[in-house]
Amino acid sequence: RSWPAASQIPPPPLRYRYHRSEYLGSAHGLGGVLFALLAWPGPHLSPGGSVQASVDWLISVGAANGDGNVGPTLDEANVSELVHWCHGSPGLVHLYARAHRVWGGSRYLQAVQASADNAVWQRGLLRKGPGICHGVAGSGYAFLLLHRLLLRARQFAQFMLDSDEFRQGARRPDCPYSLFEGWAGTACFYADLASPELAAFPLFDAFD
């Protein structure tokens, strides 16, 4: 999916280059850098500053894309293809939730819900495996962020447990027992389902 309207939005004031690409996601992109900046109080978090403007830019691109999702790089911001924690809405919803804690207002909560309802719920059942980086559990964490959508988080968990489509079609991760690609992160997801009021994406807590 490519949305021309998103490509017309001027670039954000803050940009981050990694391996010659300006990534936008939470794992190795602008979203992750902004999340870290939001976790550290200081004058850089003043309303209307470059940090807030960059978060708002991600939301604007997602809205222009029609489903709240953002492409993997600045050059492909208008390509709503990857719906992963590392690249796309499942990761950016944690940034938006953190932004709401810092600046308040309804804009950021609306961005969480729009991204989760549209991109993650519609396209978050992934075949890349169970993990939290680019797997089903990472998508499920988007709904643990929203307690009133807990039923949806449980359905992501159920998909991994009971679905023949997942059991037969899911790829084996490169590191099947690791936190981000494998079952260790998935175990965290299942544990958090038991106590959703304390749920937090591992090492990426929007509420801490």
Automatic annotation (TrEMBL):
GO biological process: carbohydrate metabolic process; peptide modification
SUPFAM superfamilies: LanC-like (SSF158745)
InterPro entries in UniProt: 6hp_glycosidase-like_sf, LANC-like, LanC-like_prot_euk
Binding, Zn(2+): 86, 133-134
GO cellular component, one term: plasma membrane
UniProt KW keywords: Metal-binding, Zinc
Classification via CDD domains: euk_LANCL
Pfam families: LANC_like (PF05147)
Coiled coil ranges: none
Entry GO MF terms: metal ion binding
Family: Belongs to the LanC-like protein family.
UniProt name for this protein: LanC-like protein 3
Species lineage: Eukaryota, Metazoa, Spiralia, Lophotrochozoa, Platyhelminthes
